[in-house]
Design goal:
The chain is α+β, with helices and mostly antiparallel strands. It folds into two domains: 15-167 and 227-317, Bira Bifunctional Protein, Domain 2 (BirA Bifunctional Protein, domain 2, 2-Layer Sandwich), CATH 3.30.930.10; 328-419, 3-Layer(aba) Sandwich (Rossmann fold), CATH 3.40.50.800. Helices cover 37% and strands 22% of the residues. The chain has 15 helices and 16 strands. It has an eight-stranded mixed sheet with strand order 1-5-6-11-10-9-7-8, sandwiched between helices. A five-stranded mixed sheet has the order 13-12-14-15-16, sandwiched between helices. Helix 12 links the parallel strand 12 (328-334) and strand 13. The protein is elongated, with a radius of gyration of 28 Å. The two termini are 44 Å apart. Bound molecules: histidyl-adenosine monophosphate (HAM). The site of histidyl-adenosine monophosphate (HAM) has 27 residues, from strand 6, strand 10, strand 11 and helix 11. Histidyl-adenosine monophosphate is lined by residues 79-81, 111, 113, 118-120, 123, 125, 127, 129, 257-258, 280-285, 303-307, 309-310. This is Histidine--tRNA ligase. Keywords: Ligase. Its EC number is 6.1.1.21. It is an enzyme of class 6 (ligase).
Length: 420
């Protein structure tokens, strides 16, 4: 039996990297004062149809949807924003005194995509959502958090690409311009774009198949259709990024694949050599109508998400070594029935005192036990033989210096804690 296509087992050696990265990301959210939210891994299918959007690839092609035994249509979440907005409405978080509501989440998401490097069917997103602020400064804060998530882990080859999708009015005008522009050549576009022309013409702009069509070059740019409010909003977002010294590029063709966006949209790409076809590390944007769409009060929102898979891929490509401590504090070596009993007691006592300790459980001889201690990179090897037992002592060997000392049992914990 193998794990399903597009999923992976994370084994010891790799899980430490995940723990390290997740821990770092959580630390970062503390600095930015975001609180964790945990929502269910499955939701009513309708939630994603209404938020991510009926015409998007995610909803049309990529959802893991099934009917449960109660005849409900259930979907494994393909992303986190919809669930967070649903939860915000359901629990009336808008009523809490401290606004905006700043949340983060880490957890598995599911999309039935064609698996390749950096594209999985189960992947883990870390994301943040801010609900209840239409201040352009918060857009810049979210982008700063996203950039710092990578920087704090040592990544350097990053590019922040931003765009404005404008408000409803701006988008309507732009949409019409796109329909007018592409209609005369609709037969030359791919099948997907032919239907996008009427359902979601904006998505034509980021179609991989039609990228080189001559009509792409002079396609109407959303930036030319922004009304005054949208234009001014975008200018302020850029001013905040400038003030925070965060470099960015404006790309009017950045459209994002989910329907709930308006105003600010952004992606972070890797510039690292050999990164392969998928260079987008994370994406996000503003979604001012979403909470209302889900039955809540009119509430602006913005957020972003990254996948840990792509983050680890970028770290590998940039040759960043995570400072993971894989050493063991102590390994207890013992021989003989009586010494083995004493060893179990010593191990137990040290562990309760917060020391990382292991011992042999395979009946190995002295030499084999020392080898294990070496392989496990033990800082100290504690040796218990007949002589030690007779003297109520244990030999403590510092594996780095080779120094050895006899320590009485009742002093051992204090001694080891002092050394570590
Ligand atoms: P998204 O662009 O669909 O946006 O996904 C965000 C990130 O999730 C991507 O940039 C990528 O790092 C990762 N990702 C997506 N699909 C896969 C996959 N199949 N395998 C590995 N990683 C993947 C969203 O999901 C929005 N909810 C982001 C957001 C939050 N917008 C506002 N708030």
């Amino acid at each position: 039996m193998k794990a399903p296509r597009g999923t992976q087992d994370l084994l010891p050696g790799v899980t430490e990297q995940w723990q390290y990265v997740e821990e770092k990301l959580k630390e970062l959210t503390k600095n930015y004062h975001y609180k964790e939210i945990r929502t269910p891994i499955f939701e009513h299918t309708e939630l994603f149809q209404r938020s991510v959007g009926d015409t998007t690839d995610i909803v049309q092609k990529e959802m893991y949807t099934f009917t449960d035994k109660g005849d409900r249509s259930i979907t494994l979440r393909p992303e986190g924003t919809a669930s967070v907005a649903r939860s915000y409405v359901e629990h009336k978080l808008f009523g809490l005194p401290n606004q905006p509501t700043k949340l983060f989440y880490v957890g598995p998401m599911f999309r039935y995509e064609r698996p390749q490097q950096g594209r999985m069917r189960q992947f883990v997103q870390f994301g943040v959502e801010v609900l209840g602020s239409a201040d352009p400064a918060i857009d810049a804060e979210v982008m700063s958090l996203a950039m710092n998530a990578y920087r704090s882990l040592g990544l350097k080859s990053l590019k922040l690409v931003i765009n404005s999708l404008g408000d409803k009015e701006s988008r309507e005008k732009h949409r019409q311009a796109l329909v007018d522009h592409f209609s005369p050549v609709v037969d030359e576009l791919c099948n997907d774009c032919q239907s996008r022309l009427h359902t979601n013409p904006l998505r034509i702009l980021d179609c991989k198949k039609d990228r080189d069509h001559p009509k792409m070059k002079d396609a109407p740019s959303i930036l030319d259709y922004l009304n005054d409010y949208s234009k001014e909003y975008f200018e302020k977002v850029k001013a905040y990024l400038d003030a925070m010294n965060i470099p960015y590029e404006v790309d009017p063709n950045l459209v994002r694949g989910l329907d709930y966006y308006n105003h600010t949209a952004f992606e972070i790409m890797s510039d690292a050599e050999g990164f392969g076809a998928i260079t987008t590390l994370s994406g996000g944007g503003r979604y001012n109508g979403l909470v209302q769409e889900l039955g809540g009060p009119e509430t602006p929102g913005i957020g972003f998400a990254l996948s840990i898979e792509r983050l680890l891929m970028a770290l590998e490509k940039e040759g960043v070594e995570l400072p993971i401590d894989d050493q063991l504090d102590c390994f207890v070596v013992s021989l003989g029935d009586e010494a083995n009993l004493k060893a179990a007691a010593v191990v137990n006592e040290l562990r309760q005192a917060g020391v990382q300790v292991d011992k042999d459980y395979q009946g190995k001889k002295f030499k084999g036990q020392f080898k294990s201690a070496d392989r496990l990179k033990a800082k100290y090897v504690l040796v218990l033989g007949d002589d030690e037992l007779a003297n109520n002592q244990i030999s403590v060997k510092n594996m780095e210096t080779g120094d050895q000392e006899a320590v009485s049992f009742d002093q051992l914990t204090t001694y080891i804690k002092g050394k570590l």
